[in-house]
């Protein structure tokens, strides 16, 4: 538990959401990337070395405009080369695929492993939700269908019917419905996939999993881990078994959770900055430190219920809980190690319209400003600072539906299988 205590939400003026009248960028540290930083270094390696300075948002000067260094001639650099080398990696995967038709050079660059590595590290914007109703095929809800999308949202390129169980930085963790219930790791954009070897322990239906994948700009290999919280059938205990793509094998951790009063787990978990978190049915959070391979228990608010959701906000663990009073909905944001109330975000009835009379379920907080909630018969994106609502999709009301935030990334799976009939 000592390791979990270090994992505390930083206090930001006692408020995880900045007030409307505050410009979060005013007087902040601005990053100014110069053309020289995009060139080759002394060893002939590509580098992007940012230079930075402190400037107020009201500062305006012609000197702040980007200029070519004196030792570089402008005619030596073509704008299409700069765009291809240093701009494309900031775009979502669907938009990037359109640029494959520009030229053979662009196609070769986009299909290269080095570009996939750059795009995975530079584009981390949550682009939509993978959702699945029990017994049905998965589907994808895009926040912007023009920019974000996948070619096979039902994941039919996999060799058998699956359930989507976990998502992390562009990769999905799935499990087959039949046979030995094998685990799969896949990228729905590239249709790359890998079947995970059979684990050592027996993973029953109550096993909860989480995919841990954190791209590293300094490490070219894309390695990830599938963390499984396994309940032993013959003992009142819970063990952690981890699959590593680095070794393509499983390992059983020595840590054993015996605090069964705080279990069982309420579905699959998710990964944040070296920790995996699962919500339990008893109103607590089971946290697991991947580096130290130790666990700890956190308490949720006493009023927690199935309409709430654990989520990530500014890289920290938070809990969103809908609350209704006098026909007005609000979302209570809890954080810190004691899961204390950090902020109440009102959902103005004049914005929600007739949806204010429906049931509200929190799904996730994405991109540090947008709450995704299921309200009535619709899934909506509520922009906190602007107090604006966008309809994202119809919501299923005939049972529990899993919604997983997804990043439209080219993240590689590693040694993979590919359906050549679908993705030549």
UniProtKB/TrEMBL annotation:
Residues 166-314 form the F-box associated beta-propeller type domain. SUPFAM superfamilies: F-box domain (SSF81383). Residues 82-115 form the F-box domain. It comes from the Eukaryota. InterPro entries: At3g26010-like, F-box-assoc_dom_typ1, F-box-assoc_interact_dom, F-box-like_dom_sf, F-box_dom. PANTHER family: F-BOX DOMAIN-CONTAINING PROTEIN (PTHR35546:SF25), F-BOX PROTEIN INTERACTION DOMAIN PROTEIN-RELATED (PTHR35546). This is F-box protein At5g49610-like. It comes from Populus euphratica.
């Amino acid at each position: 538990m000592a390791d979990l205590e270090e994992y505390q939400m930083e206090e930001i003026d006692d408020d995880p959401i900045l007030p409307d009248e505050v410009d979060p960028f005013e007087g902040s540290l601005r990053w100014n990337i110069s053309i020289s930083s995009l060139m080759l270094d002394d060893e002939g390696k590509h580098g992007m070395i940012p230079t930075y300075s402190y400037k107020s948002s009201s500062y305006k000067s012609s000197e702040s405009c980007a200029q070519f260094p004196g030792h570089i001639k402008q005619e030596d650099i073509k704008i299409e080369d700069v765009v291809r080398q240093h701009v494309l990696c900031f775009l979502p995967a669907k938009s990037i695929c359109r640029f494959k038709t520009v030229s053979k050079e662009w196609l070769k660059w986009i299909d290269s492993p080095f570009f996939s590595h750059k795009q995975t590290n530079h584009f981390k914007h949550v682009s939509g939700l993978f959702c699945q109703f029990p017994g049905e095929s998965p589907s994808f809800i895009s926040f912007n269908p023009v920019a974000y999308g996948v070619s096979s949202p039902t994941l039919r390129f996999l060799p058998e019917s699956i359930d989507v169980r976990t998502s992390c930085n562009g990769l999905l963790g799935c499990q087959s419905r039949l046979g030995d219930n094998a685990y799969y790791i896949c990228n729905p954009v590239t249709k790359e996939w890998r079947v995970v070897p059979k684990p050592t322990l027996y993973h029953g239906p109550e096993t909860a999993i989480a995919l841990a994948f954190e791209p590293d700009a300094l490490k070219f290999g894309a390695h990830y881990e599938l963390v499984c919280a396994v309940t032993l059938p013959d003992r009142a205990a819970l063990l952690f078994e981890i699959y590593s793509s680095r070794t393509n094998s499983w390992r059983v951790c020595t840590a054993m959770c015996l605090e069964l009063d705080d279990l069982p787990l309420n579905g699959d978990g998710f990964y944040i900055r070296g920790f995996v978190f699962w919500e339990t049915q008893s109103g607590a959070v089971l946290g697991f430190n991947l580096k130290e391979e130790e666990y700890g228990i956190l308490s949720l608010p006493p009023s927690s219920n199935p309409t709430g959701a654990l989520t990530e906000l500014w890289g920290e663990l938070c809990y969103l809980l809908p609350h209704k009073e006098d026909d007005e909905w609000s979302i209570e944001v809890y954080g810190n190690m004691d899961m204390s109330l950090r902020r109440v975000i009102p959902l103005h009835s004049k914005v929600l319209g007739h949806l204010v009379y429906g049931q509200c379920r929190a799904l996730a907080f994405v991109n540090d400003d947008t709450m995704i909630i299921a309200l009535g018969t619709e899934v909506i994106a509520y922009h906190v600072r602007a107090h604006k609502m966008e309809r994202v999709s119809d919501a299923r009301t005939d049972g529990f539906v899993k919604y997983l935030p997804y990043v439209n990334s080219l993240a590689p799976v590693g040694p993979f299988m590919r359906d050549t009939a679908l993705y030549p």
